[in-house]
Each structure stands twice: as structure tokens, then as C-alpha cells.
């Protein structure tokens, strides 16, 4: 997903015509200087660390597309990530450059930028492909049948998804609703989806953000009908929330998703899940009574959940130690034959992972209850049995 075009870059007090590459999936924008300009532009950069602190802008940017072009008069607030000065050699000749006879870009200097804000807006010029509005999401594994459609009747929206690419279409402007769809789709895929691009009329948004789905839990459901209903229910639920409740919901989902897909160790992901637990918990202390009521858990299991948090966050235990000690303390006063997170006969790491899955499922069931979605089998429960 790379787009190439031309623009003007002011660098070291002089304006240069540059070749520009937009690469949203890497999060970077690249500017290449023609050979002659490379020499004058890069003569004095060595040892100058100030160039990495300054903001830059690419002006008069134009990217040609099959059905037109996207333009930006002043693509500003760009920071330098790296610089690759070009080298000169005997291959520095007009014919070599003109006919690309040498595989290396001899003498071509490159600056790699990253934008201050990942979401950039461009103007579309040319014949419109259609008059609808669209959003595209990527990096979400739904395990769905190719071409599956979801219709949100109340808003006349149509969602098409095929493996990890989802396209949302409507006659009205979808751009302001992108975050609402992001939350619904991310929950459905067990990790953070990527809003990649969107358009309405002549406004095109492109999101320059890298993805890391290495810790994604994958599809929430097996059946496509369950996926369809979940999207519809979640959309309707969030659409009815007032500002205060919506802010709380957004915060809850963000920590929940962080717990499922953050590229970090299991303990840190569990801490994110506990933050999500606290946001929707009915008390200020996350005690066993409130945990039991909020998540419909046996009081003794809720006691383990409360003790685990205190030991992990406040008492310096590792995740495995916190789990073992919490279960031991509860079993010391009551007869607890087994727990819903299946730790008996398993290694410490496997037990902790099962406990992590248990917390994920608890949060999903709370979400189901809130949006009026009937409880049903979640695929993550199957992972506990392995």
C-alpha cells in the first residue's frame, strides 16, 4: 500500500522538488532528492541534530491514482526519522540515471518522515468512482466467509468483509463514525483493528499507523450470523449513549483492547484488563462483592480476582505467584474444588494464560449484557481446554 507522487520540500533554507512516497502501513512518508540537488541539500547536515527537532512540510503534493489524484497544498508537521545521503560513483551518468541502468540509486538522497498526527486528510481530484462514503479497516482477523455482508438497517449502512479487510459503505458521511466502527470491529476480532482510510465527497483520509497483530486473539465467534448480530447490537448501543457514558465506554474498550493486543508481556496485558474491569465495576475499590455482582461470578471466584489484583499491582508478586497465592488463600477457608480458569495439573505459565482468558471472557460477557446481546459461546473458551 504505497503511493508515489511529487511535491516541494523546504530543507536547509532552500526549496527542492522531491519524489514523494506515502507508505501508510509503515507509518512513514519518504522524500527523495534528484541527484544534483542531493549534493547541495546534504552538504551541511552531518552532526546537526537540530534537523531532527524541527517540523517540515511538503507543499504542492500530488499523487496520481487510477481514477484521479490526491493532493495536499501543505502537508505539514512532519518530523525526520532518518536520512540516507546518496553516494556518487563512476555510475553517475545521464544515461544511467535516465534509463535506470544501475540497480542502486546512486546519488539519490532520501529523507524518511513521520507525521505528528497519523491521520492525514487529502483532496481528491478527478472523476468520482461513486457517490457513497466509505471506510476501510485492516489488520482484523474475523475468519468470515468471503463477501459477508452486514446491513445496519436504521442507518442504511453496508459492511463487507473478507478475511482481514473490511469496507463500510453508506450514502451519508461515515468519517465522523469511524471510531465507533473501530471499537465494534476490534472487539469482534479480539484485538485492535486499523482504520486505514476513508472518504466522503472529495475528502480522503489516510491513516499512517503501523500494525502489530502478533498478540491478537482472533475471531470472537465461529458463526457469521453471530458476527452480524454483534456488530448491529454494538452499533445501536453506542449510538444511544450520552456524552458522559460514551466517554466511559470508549475508555473501557481502549483498555480492554490494549489487554488483548498490546505487544508486551502477559502481566502488563492483565493489568490493562484490570483497568477495564475497574472502569465498569460498580464500586471504587474493586472488592469481591462488587466483582461478583458486576460480572455474575461466584463470590469465592470473585475473591480470587480481587486478591490477584492486589498481589500483582501492590505487593510485587509475579503473575504466576499472585494467581497461586490467591487460590491458596481462598481454598484455606472454603472448599473450592475447581476454578473456571482451569489451573489444576497445568504449568504456571499455562495457568496464568488461562486466567488471562478468563478475564477476557468476563469482560466480553459484561459487554454482551450492556448491549443486549444474548450470551453465547466464545471461541476463546476453547483455548482454555488445550
SS field, number of helical segments: 11
Sum up the overall morphology in one term. globular
Please report the distance between the alpha carbons of the first and last residues: 37 Å
Biggest sheet record? 6 strands, antiparallel, barrel
- What percentage of residues falls in helices of 4 or more residues? 25-40%
Number of strand segments: 13
The tally of domains stands at: 3
**What is the N-to-C succession of helices and strands?**
EEEHEEHEEEEEEHEEHHHHHHHH
Report strand %. 25-35%
pLDDT below 50 for ≥5 consecutive residues: which ranges?
A: none
Rounded average pLDDT: 84
Structural class by helix and strand composition: alpha+beta
Strand ordering within the main sheet:
1-2-3-6-5-4
Radius of gyration: 26 Å
Question: What secondary-structure arrangement, pairings included, does this model have?
Answer:
Blueprint: E1 3-11, E2 14-23, E3 28-33, H1 35-42, E4 56-65, E5 68-84, H2 94-99, E6 109-115, E7 119-125, E8 133-138, E9 148-152, E10 157-162, E11 165-170, H3 178-189, E12 194-200, E13 203-207, H4 224-239, H5 243-261, H6 266-280, H7 288-295, H8 299-314, H9 319-331, H10 348-371, H11 380-383
Antiparallel strand pairs: 1-2, 1-4, 2-3, 3-6, 4-5, 5-6, 5-7, 7-13, 8-11, 8-12, 9-10, 10-11, 12-13
Helix pairs in contact: 3-4, 5-6, 6-10, 7-8, 8-9, 9-10
